[in-house]
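Researcher: Can you fold this with zinc ion in place?
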Amino acid sequence: MKENSIQKISQMIANTAPQELTCDEVFQVLHQYADIVSRGEDASQLLPDVHRHLESCPDCREEYEALLRAIKAK
Ligand SMILES: [Zn+2]
């Protein structure tokens, strides 16, 4: 993924939800988030809102970890 698509995701999140993300919104970008992490980039810097949600939401966290395992298993 190119850097400007990360910006697009960030903007999309910023436009739709200024503060807290919903689980639906997190799910929409979760695979990109996992992708960023799997490349060793700092997803908590690039997508801080998603990072914060994952810290506080066990459901999304579980989904995220499953995605990460799937990416790494490739
Ligand atoms: Zn959630």
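Model: Folded with zinc ion in place. The chain has a mean pLDDT of 87.
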